[in-house]
Write a structure and sequence with these properties.
The chain is of the alpha/beta class. The chain has one domain: 4-Layer Sandwich (Purple Acid Phosphatase, chain A, domain 2). It is 28% helix and 22% strand. It has seven helices and twelve strands. The strands form two sheets. It has a six-stranded mixed sheet with strand order 4-3-2-1-11-12, covered by helices on one side. It starts with a strand and ends with a strand. The C terminus is likely disordered.
Amino acid sequence: MAGRIRIAAAGDIHSDGHDRERLELAFERVADQADIVLLAGDLTTHGQLEQAQVLADVCREFSLPVVGVLGNHDWHSDRTAELTELLTGAGVVVLDRGFTVQAIDGVSVGIVGVKGFMGGFGGQMANFGEPLVRECYAEVTHDVEALNRGLEAIAGTQIRIVLLHYAPIAETLEGEPPGIWAFLGSERMAAPIAAHRPDLVLHGHAHGGSFEGCIGPVPVYNVAVHVIGRDFWIFDVAPKEAVSERPAAVEVEEAATLIRPNPAS
């Protein structure tokens, strides 16, 4: 069995175009503590290219793989295609309803990434009436479908991770005013996670939320930097043997992968 994989995660870093030194130092410090970096959205403050350029410059010469999703702030200037192209050119894998498989020290790490969207919990979002409401519901439907497809595609990898921006559970929103939970995530994102039982789910967005929750046996972490209180949080994950298929009984048994979260200094 290959060794454990150290995953450095952070969300809501909000690069504003003037924080090059901060980002350089953060990435420099984590390079020796992790095997891969995952960014859970809101990579920029207002989705402007000069803000993304700072992160791109830092990642271009970075020694570890970097995988991320965009967040609502990255959509603010409606330039996501250009922003994605810029980051991709610097070596960042930007997932938009897609997946990637990274080979790290002989371990296959499958990552499914979708931004997610609003919708709320406990039946807050209805699927009828005004067209804009139905569009919101449909947007989440596309994410749920993409998440399900991605989890099916990475079923044979040794470590399986879901990377989001919006929250899939209410538990990691505790601390935020309940009145805005509908804008911080959607419970519908939990269904494919519960069905496929990945090893780790990461999200951001809820700056005032809580760090840890779960979907059944699946651990869910809010890694917004405002919550973790540091540049990155390190998750130490044990790989499983790769398999070509995951029968339900095997999947249930293997879902209890040990994860030891540790702060990055």
